[in-house]
Write a structure and sequence with these properties.
mainly alpha; 0% strand
């Protein structure tokens, strides 16, 4: 039989891993969006550089 405390620790560990993964995906998506914005700005000739 599984110890309830051990089961809670495993669930917390899984929850933390999922949270880290979601943060990573969110950051990756934000970087991709920023890249698209910069590309569109350059393509439109609106950049300062």
């Amino acid at each position: 039989m599984i110890d309830p405390d051990e089961e809670l620790q495993e669930k917390a560990s899984v929850d933390e891993a999922i949270e880290r993964m979601e943060e990573h995906v969110s950051e990756r998506d934000a970087h991709e969006d920023q890249g698209l914005i910069e590309k569109r700005t350059r393509d439109a000739g609106l950049d300062d550089g």
